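User: tokens in, sequence out, please.
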């Protein structure tokens, strides 16, 4: 499933070599050219679109719009492409279906390949952030599922090698718009000990179904540990496929918001005059549910806003997975669970009480701004405090406690670390 929510893959120049740069630059959208573009678009949709009946409806609607003068005042190619896309979405909101106008000269094959490779490298093949979080949590943030070549495989393999000692894996797809199904399959192969049927892709124009099966890998570590996938309304296409496949196999917990709802595979087709349409030509069929996530999105197992999804996943892991963790990590697990729970469910405290905590604690300032307490360190570090109780707050991955003197006045601040270390600071 191609990465398509906002961008289009570059089409090889051979597909539209008949149009020169000068022609595109000087393109004037006459009524005749608009009609020609719409006729060509409607024809390609009937030929390729995954649902033939819907394809006919698309064509009829944009032709009616043209006849009614809807596009009469549009003179810019990009505006015309956007207007046609929005009108087709009014018939059927398939977000994979988009028309695009490109006035730039076509790249050569070599130029195109170099550009794609440079883009992949700059994005680290969709893996911009890989971390080993406190509590022995493996964390991967993905922004795209790039083409599965040897370099992409090295990045994937290196990612899982780095995180091989983790007790749990969290994959963050909250800002991931999709990509290639072969990358989805390769990543899934890390999570199943046996060869597993995870997805089918049906292509209407050639009446063909392509099955996706995982391939058992030598390193079976990740077949045994819990997996959480973080999602949002922006999670789309192949990112949804990974989420849906692992959820249907009961191999991952999905945390966050319902996803964007794009389950169609696509194909880029040139129209004329620099217009390119991305057409959904196939659909996903899950071997277990016999359906997919088109329009409805992937529904989370743990529903929360996208901002809180990481904390919610960590909290759920510690809440349900503490017993199997090695004894040496139980105290840390409970500490982290407390931190995560406070972020999800801040304790209500009125302003008059919050005001009593403000002051200078050995050059560490506690200030009250817009109803929130802030910790201000001498080195300019600054962050908000989240209330856990009437006198205890979270400070990033630490706890902060306020204590009273014999007269009942707040005069001491304590920082408590996950390893049990305590630092005390007295109010001036």
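Assistant: Sequence out:
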């Amino acid at each position: 499933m191609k990465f398509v929510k906002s961008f289009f893959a570059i089409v090889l120049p051979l597909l539209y070599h008949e149009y020169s740069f000068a022609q595109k630059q000087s393109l004037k959208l006459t009524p005749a050219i608009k009609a020609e573009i719409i006729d060509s678009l409607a024809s390609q949709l009937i030929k390729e679109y995954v649902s033939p009946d819907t394809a006919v409806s698309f064509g009829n609607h944009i032709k009616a719009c043209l006849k009614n003068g809807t596009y009469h005042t549009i003179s810019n190619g990009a505006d015309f492409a956007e207007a046609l896309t929005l009108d087709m979405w009014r018939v059927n909101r398939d977000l994979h279906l988009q028309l695009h106008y490109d006035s730039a000269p076509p790249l050569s094959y070599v130029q195109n390949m170099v550009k794609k490779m440079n883009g992949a490298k700059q994005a680290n093949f969709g893996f911009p952030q890989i971390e080993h979080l406190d509590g022995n949590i493996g964390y991967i943030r993905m922004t795209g599922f790039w083409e599965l070549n040897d370099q992409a495989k090295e990045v994937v393999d290196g990612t899982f090698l780095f995180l091989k000692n983790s007790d749990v894996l969290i994959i963050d797809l909250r800002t991931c718009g999709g990509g290639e199904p072969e990358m989805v399959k390769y990543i899934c192969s890390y999570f199943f000990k046996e060869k597993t049927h995870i997805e089918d892709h049906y292509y209407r124009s050639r009446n063909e179904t392509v099955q996706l099966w995982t391939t058992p890998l030598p390193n079976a570590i990740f077949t045994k540990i819990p997996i959480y996938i973080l999602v949002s309304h922006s999670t789309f296409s192949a990112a949804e496929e990974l989420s849906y496949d692992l959820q249907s196999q009961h191999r991952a917990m999905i945390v966050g918001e319902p996803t964007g709802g794009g389950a169609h595979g696509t194909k880029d087709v040139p129209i004329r005059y620099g217009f390119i349409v991305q057409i959904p030509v196939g659909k996903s069929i899950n071997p277990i549910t016999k359906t997919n996530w088109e329009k409805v999105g992937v529904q989370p197992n743990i529903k929360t806003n996208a901002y809180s999804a990481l904390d919610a996943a960590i909290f759920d892991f510690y809440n349900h997975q503490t017993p199997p963790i090695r004894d040496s990590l139980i105290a840390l697990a409970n500490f982290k669970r407390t931190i995560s729970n406070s972020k999800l469910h801040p304790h209500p405290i009125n302003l008059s009480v919050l005001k009593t905590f403000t002051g200078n604690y050995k050059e560490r300032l506690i200030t009250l701004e817009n109803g929130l307490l802030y910790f201000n360190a001498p080195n300019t570090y600054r962050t908000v405090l989240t209330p856990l109780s009437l006198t205890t707050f979270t400070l990033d991955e630490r706890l902060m406690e306020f204590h009273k003197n014999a007269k009942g006045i707040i005069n001491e601040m304590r920082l408590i670390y996950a390893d049990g270390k305590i630092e005390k600071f007295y109010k001036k």
